[in-house]
Design brief:
By secondary structure, this protein is of the alpha+beta class. The protein is built from eleven helices and 13 strands. Strand 12 and strand 13 form a beta hairpin. The longest helix has 18 residues.
Length: 323
């Protein structure tokens, strides 16, 4: 798929546009009553825990300004952690602490913060500065993922995550988002992370983009991005499928991280997953979505659904030409 192709070329290659995604997939397959299950990260985490889905450990929740003053007691027990808004989006408002130096807390970029700065950031979260719609929010304090060593050469400071689109219970497309210097160590494409497509059958990395430019190496480390085999791949697909089954949304983005010791962990769910996964994977979503949509009776067994997803990937492989 060529970047910056003509609209007619994009349609011919099955590229899903925003309006069609919203009307034909999000509005049709995602009941509004279920949105709070994924828009509220605390609810998402509780659903996961109740369902036996592996997630980063929850250290604490700050709900009021009075509790902000008590945050030091939570920090005292953990050298590495994440502070994030319960209703945040796009990676905004996430503060990652990697360790301590005396009375200061070290961010991923090496800069040091006093306790007062973390308290101020938490107060901003409560005020709704980072929440969807600017509504008052809660701050989640949780385990900071220690990413798997397979990513050491293709990530800058932060933790890479894997985004999988699941449609009608079938994993349909996947990519890794790799933190960069531009993205300040965050796995967010809009902030400058690398999007790296994954072959659904083999779990091998394929095609990468950075700031909408095709790349073959990480911009900071210089390490090649293609041909990397993702560990635990079938388990990752099963985890994404299980998440979609549990929340009941028909068109869902599942974000998964791979911890060095804990393995795959579900990080977040998204009822409105973005479309940049098409750039990262080098092919459009629409053709596979239509194939899934045309099936009246999809398998209920997860392994059978994963087999179907891999058949779809084989169809992509036989037709794909990346320019």
């Amino acid at each position: 798929m060529r970047l910056f192709a003509k609209p007619s070329e994009l349609r011919a290659q099955g590229v899903l546009g925003m309006n069609k995604r919203n009307a034909d997939y999000i509005m049709r397959y995602n009941p509004r009553r279920l949105y709070p299950l994924v828009d509220n990260k605390l609810k998402t985490k509780q659903i996961a825990l109740d369902s036996g889905i592996a997630v980063p450990e929850l250290y604490g929740v700050v709900e009021t300004e009075h509790q902000v003053q008590q945050i030091e007691s939570i920090l005292a027990d953990h050298r590495a952690l994440v502070v994030k808004p319960a209703h945040g989006s796009g990676g905004n408002g996430i503060l990652i602490i990697n360790g301590r130096m005396g009375n200061f807390y070290r961010k991923t970029n090496g800069s040091l913060l006093p306790l007062s700065a973390i308290q101020h950031h938490t107060s901003n979260i409560l005020s709704g500065m980072y929440s969807l719609g600017g509504v008052p929010d809660k701050a989640i304090i949780e385990y900071r993922v220690d990413f798997d060593p397979m990513f050491e050469h293709i990530s800058y400071q932060g933790v890479p995550d894997i985004r999988i689109i699941v449609f009608r219970g079938i994993p349909t497309a996947a990519m890794i988002r790799l933190p960069t210097r531009d993205s300040d160590g965050k796995a967010n494409l809009h902030q400058g992370a690398v999007g790296l497509g994954i072959n659904m059958t083999t779990g091998t990395t394929t095609h990468a983009v950075h700031h909408n430019n095709i790349v073959t190496a990480h911009p900071d480390t210089g390490h090649p991005t293609t041909g990397i085999v993702i560990a635990h791949w079938d388990n990752i697909l099963r985890l994404a499928t299980h998440c979609a089954d549990r929340v009941g949304l028909g068109y869902l983005g599942v974000d998964i991280v791979i911890d060095r010791t804990l393995g795959p962990l579900m990080l977040e769910l998204n009822a409105r997953p973005g479309l940049n996964i098409q750039l990262a994977s080098g092919h459009g979503l629409l053709k596979n979505l239509l194939k899934i949509e045309s099936q009246q009776d999809l398998p209920t067994d997860i392994d059978a659904r994963l087999a179907f997803a891999k058949v779809l990937q084989q169809s992509v492989d036989s037709n794909q030409v990346v320019n």
